[in-house]
Structure formats: structure tokens, C-alpha cells
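Methods — Computational structure assignment.
A single polypeptide chain was analysed. Its primary sequence is given first, followed by the predicted tertiary structure written as C-alpha cells.
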Amino acid sequence: MIEQYNRLSGKSQQRIEALLSRADNLFCHQWLRKAMFDELRKQVVHKGGYPHFSEQLQEHREMMLITEYFMSYRSTLPSIQDEYLNPYEDVDPIMALVEERKQLINDYAKLPLSHDWDRVKEAFPDSWRAFARRLDFRNEHSLAELRELLHIVDRISLITDILNKREGGHGITLKCVDYHKHVQTHESKEMSRQELKQLLVRAVDACREYFWANTSMAVVQAVCKEDYHFGDNASEFERFMQEVLQELETPLDYSCPANTIASARQSGEYLKHPISEWVGYCAIDSRPMVLLRNLRTQLDILSTGNTP
């Protein structure tokens, strides 16, 4: 019994560490807000106006989730703004946000619904629909759990937006140390180059069927940069990726020689933009998006043990 408890406790801590290390990506919700808003407009404008919308709202779980999500969205912003704009004299406002997000993620991980919410990911655009279909909106206890989850998710995602200057920073302009400098110099648990290399060796091997050319390495570079804080130096990544490929037991059909990333960026407009904007340039079933989804899935499985 004690050993079983220790195993469960260890898995919980591993999950929290994975959430913390990838918070900037996992709690980036622009894609989700857009997907839900597009669905809302489609239901209201194209399918019979507000009578149809009312029916959908009462019977359609996806619409119910959209309503609950947008009722929570930015509901926590005023208190975040107050804390940032009126700090104690001995508190760095950015560090205060960083520390608050850490605590919020710990609290989030304790919520029963958080395990299902972990699977709502940009790499799986319809994952929010699957989450909605599992909910019982007529059960008061279940609805209360959902609202508690969305409240804490809203606060985490808003802080994440502010730290990364997304969506205009929600009216907050960072005036102190740059957050990404903080990430590089103050985070105590950064994945080392060797750890990332070993993770990629296994992930690339599992996803080899989805690579289509040398330029597909640019998808890997984007994931490393956004999800694991690997620098934006293309030459450095190419050298790093060559090391990764050399450790594969079975050679990959494609490599990552010098100028691979530059060549890829010249031929692929999507690579000039953050991953969250790729859907505006690539079809969901295009080769870059398929590789992206599968690569992120494998990395999640390998680093957290969670299946999609």
C-alpha cells in the first residue's frame, strides 16, 4: 500500500513538473478561444439565429461548455491587474506573477477534471469537444467542478498571456525584467540539452513516418523553441538535431544539415509565425500539422506518461 501511494505521489509530482516546465505552451489558449468563438458564430448566424442557439444551449454539450468558458474568461483579470499595478515595495511584479502561476498550477493539478483538461490541446483541435461530451451539465456537483476548473484555468492562462505579451498583455505592460530572461536565468528546473536530446531521440523515432523532407526538421525546431525554450539560433539547432539523429538506432531518411531551417522558412510561410497561428497557413491534415500533432503527443507521453 505504501509503495503504491509513493508511486501515485511520484506520478503526481512528475505531472506537476511537466505542467510547470511547459506552462507557456500548455496554457496558451488563443487557439481554444478562437475555435469556440468560431463555433458560437456558426451556430448563431448560420443555423437559425437565436431560437436555434437557445435550443443548442440547452441540449448541446459543446455549446454549454462554450458558454461556461466565456463566462469565466477574463473574470479574474481585474484582480490580476490590481496585484500587478499595486505591488508591495519589496515585490517584483513579474516574479509575483510567476510565483502565483506556480501555485495555481499546483492547485489545478489537484482538481479531478484537470486530468481530462490536460488533453485539451492545440495539436488536437477538436479535443475540447471530446472534453465537453464527457461532462454532465445537469448534475450540480459536476457543474460546480467545471466552474472551479475554468476559474483557475482562466487565471493561469491570463497570467501566461501577460508573461508572454500575448493578446496585448490584457492591458498590462511589463516594465521590469523580461520574462524570458527570467526563464533562462531563474528557473530551477530547466530541461538540460542532454535531457531534451534523449527525449527527442525517442519521439522522432516514434514519429519517423510523418517526416517528409529535410525541411520537416523546422517543425521540430519550432516545438523545441516554443515548448522547451531552445534558442532561436538556427545553426545551433541544426548541430543539435544532427546529434539527435546520430543516436537513432535506425537512421531516419532525412537529415538536418546546415541551412535546413533557413531553407524551410523560405518555402513555408507558416514557419515565420508562432505555432498557434499555423492553422491559418496550413490545413489541419497537412504534413506539417500531422507531424506537429504526433510529435507533441509523443513528447507529452514520454515526459508525463499521459496518453492523449
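Note: Residues 76 and 155 are 6 Å apart (CA to CA).
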